[in-house]
Specification:
The complex is a heterodimer of chains A (268) and B (388).
Chain A lengths: L1 E11 L19 H4 E12 L4 E5 L6 H8 L7 E6 L2 E2 L4 H7 E4 L11 H11 L4 H14 L15 H12 L6 E5 L7 H16 L3 E6 L2 H7 L2 E6 L2 E6 L1 H8 L4 H17 L1
Parallel strand pairs in A: 3-8, 3-9, 6-7, 7-8
Antiparallel strand pairs in A: 1-2, 1-4, 4-5, 9-10
Chain B lengths: L1 H14 L2 H30 L7 E6 L5 H9 L2 E5 L4 H7 L4 E4 L4 H6 L7 E4 L4 H28 L19 H32 L1 H5 L3 H5 L5 H33 L13 H11 L2 H15 L3 H11 L1 H12 L14 H11 L6 H25 L8
Parallel strand pairs in B: 1-2, 1-3
Antiparallel strand pairs in B: 3-4
Helix pairs in contact in B: 1-10, 2-7, 2-10, 7-10, 7-12, 7-13, 7-14, 7-15, 10-11, 10-12, 11-15, 12-13, 12-16
The chains are: A alpha/beta (268), B mainly alpha (388).
């Protein structure tokens, strides 16, 4: 389970001076805000166990940054977030132990086989050799990877890479699983296969956070949707709830309406 | 524990990479010593004369000087008949040199007068002049024996003619050559260390960022320091292995083709190499740390190669510095990594005694620098910009 409250994160603008020259040499920046980009302004949402929570937003809305903060890769500046009751800034290792994170690039090792890739992660998560081998075998069966499990990852299709990356994220049997745009670059069949796996994981009681910018995808898969735009949550509810609240018929129109409402609200 | 898992994975992963293996296990340890050491051995083989080696010499009219032929034989020279056209066959290189014994040789000798001998040689040909020098050296020994006999015959002590006993001790050209030779060992050692860890360090840091496998790795329940030190450990293994192999290949090279370097003053025997390896060993953690730290700053393998390529100047700098300026080994130079190892290894090769103080200073300075670099690498891995 993930509980996020008013997370905020900004980054140094690329090319901004990281140090000032003495005696006022060079053009001074007019304010601190000029030098920083706000990636996540104020994000709050809850993702329950046994449910698939979709983080829906356009590119650059702050989805990946939010997930990175939850994965303890970067520290939030303000706000708080708890993963299965562990604070992401205080209890870093406990959070990582409870969390399986699959970033938007598979990032698997091309010179290792699928099996070795997963085994490496299982071992790093603290499983001993025998248990790691057992777990890897289990995952290979669960994700139907038998055909390519012992081939080196160079030349894997995007679908195969995604499966390996997902298996790696599941290696330590985390309660909470975060997937950052997992269907990117997958064909129809691979996408369907992945959806099945995700549904299965949710029905096993895992908490799943799924980020995407594709409406149909989120509509087809998620029990709960958080619409994120410009670093803020515009609306969050079930698909039915969002459609009712916006009075629209499909998610795309509802999405546009929700984000427009948010921007007029912030303008005011 | 996770440190070792990271380390073993990086070693296995990189052993499957041809480029890494080529540079770590072939280029540094085998090709470079062969190239430098091999040409050195070859040039010495060409210039130096082995008087124990049995060789043949063409002699024209050997029957005119039977005693001389016996003497030549006793000096490991087998006499064979000269070809018909002496001058042209020497010029063409059919025979290296021909000793011609004129008709009046025996007669002149008997009467106590200078006996004529002609040595045909082609001075444009290195092999020919080498053969001629050997014959000349043997003949001068023979001449001295004859002189002594003649003097003793007349009741004169032969040593009366040896008014000077000159021993040449060349310190100029040969001396600097010696230093060049002696600095080849530290050069090869340091180069092999750098080459050994070069690609592994790049692949495990910048390469990991480039193929975007760092983000999932860092989200695992392990400390970032375990990741850094695991990668460092893998680099250290490759660096050490590469340097060890270099020591072995240098030993094998000079063992198979023994050469006298500077009258036996410079040795590349087992004892010297073990001593040199031990003296150079503080560089193993230092160079590994340097490689990891520099490539940790970079975002891509290409960027890392650029920076580390520039860094390759470091192992070469002391080599040239010491060639052109004579920097004495002092307590001031000893704490400087690389420079001190150059000086210590040179002394080891030249068989000089090394003050314990110098060894201690060199090791402390180098290890402290390695520690600082590692701390820096560890800090670099904590920053958020790492994932950009």
């Amino acid at each position: 389970m993930i509980v996020v409250e008013e997370l905020h994160k900004s980054f140094k603008r690329p090319g901004a001076r990281s140090f000032r020259l003495p005696f006022g040499i060079g053009k001074p920046a007019s304010s601190v805000a000029d030098e920083r980009v706000i990636a996540v302004n104020s994000v709050s949402f809850t993702a329950d166990d046994g449910r698939i929570t979709g983080l829906l937003g356009p590119n650059g809305a702050g989805k990946s940054t939010t997930l990175r903060m939850l994965a303890t890769l970067i520290r939030p500046e303000r706000g708080s977030a708890r993963v299965d009751g562990h604070d992401v800034t205080q209890d870093v290792l406990a959070v990582r132990q409870h969390l399986g994170f699959m970033p938007h690039n598979a990032g698997i090792y091309p010179r290792l086989s699928a099996r070795e890739n997963i085994h490496y992660y299982a071992r790093l998560c603290g499983l001993d050799k025998r248990r790691a081998e057992q777990r890897v075998g289990q995952l290979i069966e669960q994700l139907d990877m038998g055909k390519f499990a012992d081939r080196r990852a160079t030349g894997f299709s995007q679908g195969q890479k995604t499966k390996v990356a997902l298996a790696r994220a599941l290696a330590h049997q985390p309660q909470t699983i975060m997937l950052d745009e997992p269907t990117n670059g997958l064909d129809v069949m691979a996408t369907r296969g992945l959806r099945e796996i995700i549904r299965q994981l949710a029905s096993d009681g895992h908490c799943i956070v799924f980020s995407s910018h594709i409406m149909q995808e989120v509509a087809a898969l998620c029990d709960h949707i958080a619409i994120i735009s410009d670093g803020c949550i515009a609306m969050q509810d079930s698909l039915q709830g969002i459609l009712q609240r916006t009075g629209e018929e499909d998610l795309e129109d509802a999405f546009v309406k929700a984000t427009r409402e948010l921007s007029t609200e912030t303008d005011r | 524990m996770s440190l070792f898992i990271v380390m073993i994975k990086e070693i296995v992963d990189n052993l499957r990479d041809r480029q890494t293996v080529f540079y770590a296990l072939l280029f540094g340890p085998i090709l470079l010593p062969l190239l430098l050491g091999g040409s050195l051995v070859a040039s010495f083989k060409q210039l130096s004369i082995d008087f124990d080696e049995v060789t043949t010499l063409s002699v024209q009219h050997a029957q005119r000087a039977p005693r001389l032929m016996e003497f030549l034989h006793s000096q490991n020279i087998d006499v064979i008949d000269a070809p018909e056209d002496v001058q042209n066959s020497v010029r063409r290189g059919d025979v290296l040199a021909v000793l011609e014994i004129p008709e009046d040789f025996a007669e002149q000798l008997r009467q106590g007068r200078p006996a004529p001998l002609t040595l045909h040689v082609n001075s444009a040909d290195k092999e020919s002049s080498k053969a001629a020098r050997r014959v000349q050296a043997i003949l001068s020994v023979y001449e001295r024996t004859l002189n002594n006999l003649r003097l003793q015959h007349r009741g004169i002590d032969p040593t009366i003619f040896d008014s000077l006993n000159l021993v040449e001790n060349d310190v100029s050209s040969d001396g600097s050559n010696g230093q060049l030779l002696a600095s080849i060992l530290p050069f090869l050692f340091i180069m092999s260390m750098v080459m050994g860890g070069f690609y592994l360090a790049i692949d495990t840091t910048a390469g990991e960022r480039e193929r975007q496998s760092l983000e999932p790795l860092l989200s695992l329940p392990l400390k970032r320091s375990a990741v850094v030190f695991g990668k460092y450990g893998a680099t250290l293994c490759f660096v050490t292995l590469s340097c060890l192999l270099t020591a072995i290949s240098i030993y094998t090279l000079f063992h198979l083709f023994p050469v006298e370097l500077m009258g036996g003053q410079i040795r590349f025997d087992g004892r010297t190499l073990v001593r040199a390896f031990l003296l150079a060993s503080p560089l193993l953690p230092f160079i590994s740390a340097l490689l990891i730290t520099v490539s940790a700053v970079t975002r891509s393998t290409k960027e890392a190669q650029t920076y580390l390529g520039l860094m390759m100047m470091f192992p070469m700098a002391p080599f040239f510095l010491l060639q052109f300026l004579s920097v004495k080994s002092t307590t001031l130079t000893m704490p400087i990594p690389m420079l001190s190892q150059y000086q210590l290894l040179e002394s080891a090769v030249l068989g000089d005694s090394i003050p314990l103080m110098h060894i201690a200073l060199s090791a402390t300075g180098t290890l402290a620098a390695a520690g600082l670099l590692l701390m820096l690498a560890s800090r670099l891995y904590q920053r958020e910009g790492l994932l950009d």
